[in-house]
Write a structure and sequence with these properties.
Blueprint: H1 14-39, H2 46-68, H3 73-114, H4 118-128, H5 132-149, H6 151-154, H7 159-166, H8 168-183, H9 191-223, E1 226-232, E2 237-243, E3 257-262, E4 272-275, E5 284-290, H10 294-297, E6 308-314, E7 326-332, H11 336-345, E8 350-356, H12 365-375, E9 378-383, H13 393-399, E10 406-412, H14 414-427, E11 434-438
Parallel strand pairs: 7-8, 7-10, 8-9, 10-11
Antiparallel strand pairs: 1-2, 2-5, 3-4, 3-6
Helix pairs in contact: 1-2, 1-3, 2-3, 2-9, 3-4, 3-5, 4-5, 5-8, 13-14
Length: about 450
Amino acid sequence: MPAPAAAPARSARPRAVAGAGLAVVPAANAAVVLVLFARAGASANALILLGRLTGLFGALLMAFQLLLVARLPWLDRRLGMDRLTSWHRWVGFSLLWLLVAHAVLVTTGYASLASLPPVDELVSPATTVEGVLRAVVALLPVAVVGGVSARFARRRMAYETWHFVHLYAYVAVVLAFSHQVAVGTTFTSSPFATAYWWTLWGLAPGAVLAGRVVLPLRRNLRHRLRVAAVVPESDDVVSVHVTGRDLDRLPARAGQFFLWRSLTRDRWWQANPFSLSAAPDGRSLRLTAKALGPGSASLRSLRVGTRVFAEGPYGAFTALHRTRPNTLLVAGGVGATPVRALMEELTGHVVLVYRVTREQDAVLLDELRGLAHARGAVLHVVTGPTRDDPLGPGPLGRAAPDARDRDVFVCGPPGMTAAVLRALRELGVPRRQVHAERFGLAR
């Protein structure tokens, strides 16, 4: 049958609007902090002055960090968890260096005034001045979290362990705020300054509480999700069908994912991210996963009727971000699951390029062929060894000669995704038309 009529392109891109808004928030708050700092009065010692300023910006970044990981639906749908998490990582490294600079500058400054060695100057206030010891202790979890977030450490650590270590960052937030209340001169310099910092430290943790606790609990109490069927797709791929109440009111879109937690005795504590492999129809949800680790492998043993706790939907890999009438989809391996769901929702002409080592490894290939036939789409299955690079500018250009006039959605292993993004740049596809989703979190 012919493809549905194409949706009109948007004049304002949701990602650009959200990104600009998110940039304005820290910039405006930085201006406020500078004004409060100037009005609080300056120290005669330049090191102490710089130390206080780095401490204030560190407090501001710490609050901004919480906003980035709050998983607020409006931001997540427009920017995606991948992008927000990446920003969170780099802001985190900046925060670590600001806090280290704060400690070093303030300690050195006061040591020079007292004509004491810096270590002695650090130890004395930490044991006598209220709040200083909390700051010293707060720096430790920030340093640990920063260390495990480095790429070489992250690659060697299980996702669950990495996530557990990050929970200690909340301890640092509490300690840092109590330190600011106890000894921060800018905090008490005026009623407005006190109100500003209390509001900032109330809104940032409040956003985390709302996005990561209150909203998931509310949705799961409302929808009461349960496993309806477990369908093996191949020896190492399984689909899980989930039903519940009022699913037509769950704001999920094709291409998004949930953090799924099966409420069984041995798996209730572990959440794994899996994409929807079919467009939500208001009656059920389907996820399809390949056995890449304990979490995904355990799906095959789920029993019908098992209660499920799902956090989400998350992700910006949706038709919300389309800018052109027609689309090129590029999938690799199990990355075809969100692409398969997205293919149901897309309008206009669609070209799908599916990269696998062998055709037998292609996930949901029969469904993709059926969808392509029904919607008048073109499907290319590209096979070959992993070391080969069959998705360069030449092959992609031949699959979609008009790629520059299409939106391009890419989902697959990191190496393949990076190669495709390079090829698209060489083909001259505008950056605003390229939408990529990492598929490396599920374990």
